[in-house]
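INSTRUCTION: Work out how this chain folds

Fields: amino acid sequence; protein backbone structure tokens

Chain under study, with its fold:
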Amino acid sequence: MAQIVTKPFVIEFLNLLNGFGEQHIALEEITYDELKPEYRHQTLRDMDIRSKTGATILAFKNQRGEFLFNPSSQETFDPEEVMIIIGKDKELSVFKQRYCAARR
């Protein structure tokens, strides 16, 4: 953690996650069941999330609790996994509208 103190740009970025600065960046968790059925077994390449929403997939967390950081475009989102995405509020909103089923 002390290494972060010597990295001012990392601190600046983390402050964006806390809502400080001109733009607000957020993290979101999406479960497999939250996705629309037509996206559940597609690869990240086929979903084309970044170009369609601006949001970025940071990681998947699998059922064993392990994180797969920076998943490849060939990865699929499987049951029991959680997708962790990052983006501006608007990008995350577009992601949810496009890829997530309506919440009941």
Residues 79 and 102 are 18 Å apart (CA to CA). Residues 89-99 form the longest helix (11 residues). Helices lie at 2-5, 8-17, 44-47, 49-53, 89-99. The mean pLDDT is 88.
